[in-house]
């Protein structure tokens, strides 16, 4: 699709979501308030994913959308995705610096140079906090966590599928390579079933994360070559521009080594995560079935609100 046509499609869908009150614009692309009905659909998507996860007995946990800076640096987010990153800055100056800050604010001048980096960053994916807290041996059979939270990526866009502040639902498996690979193939089937029941026409593709720059292209090639990331793509804006609404990611022993997480036999644990872009699923459902959930097919409503 040509850029102009795609932009028109973004504006059209976003306009309808705003007109229906489901998205409440906040003045910057990709940051929205949500209607109660939007939130009801969002909760339904998460609950449907949780029902698929239930046989694994995941440990439910909750983290704020902030990562300690040490973790943020350790997972090399700024190194690999500087353009998407959200390190947090605040003011630590004295009275004189404060007076200068106020002068700049009064004059509408930039003031970023008066701020300093804090010990936290916005989390870009909801599995990072989990690995960083697992610095010991996992029990025999490994472990599964379930986590649902806001994430941030600096990616301002008129595309309502691509928010800067968005929610992800994840299950994270940390175990031996065989157990992790079995779990990954189970989730490929579960997500296929979920999208099928929601009528969202998802297809899978081998994908890579949007690594930055020339070095990043090599990393992306490696990720694709080893099929580490498999996305479920939904054609919200047509078959040629599908949007990833879920993914299954295999990290080999990357996080096991980084955070010294061991399996019962003492080897570095392998890990994988099954992630649903829950806000993207909500927008895709409104696009597919219209702005009034009362008129959605009963089969879809039964998946969200059984
Ligand atoms: Zn993840």
Tell me what the structure shows:
A hairpin with an 8-residue loop joins strand 10 (229-234) and strand 11. The protein has 306 residues and is of the alpha+beta class. The chain has 2 domains: 3-86 and 124-304, BirA Bifunctional Protein, domain 2 (2-Layer Sandwich); 87-122, no CATH class. It has helices at residues 3-19, 36-53, 69-74, 77-80, 95-107, 128-132, 177-198, 213-225, 254-258, 278-289, 298-304, and strands spanning 23-25, 32-34, 59-60, 66-68, 87-90, 116-122, 143-152, 165-175, 203-207, 229-234, 243-250, 270-277. The chain is built from 11 helices and 12 strands. A 7-stranded mixed sheet has the order 3-7-8-12-11-10-9. The chain is globular and about 60 Å long. The mean pLDDT is 94. Bound molecules: zinc ion. Zinc ion binds next to strand 12.
Give the structure's gist in a few sentences.
It is built from 11 helices and 12 strands.
Which features does this protein show?
306 residues; alpha+beta; BirA Bifunctional Protein, domain 2; 2 domains; seven-stranded mixed β-sheet; 11 helices; 12 strands; binds zinc ion
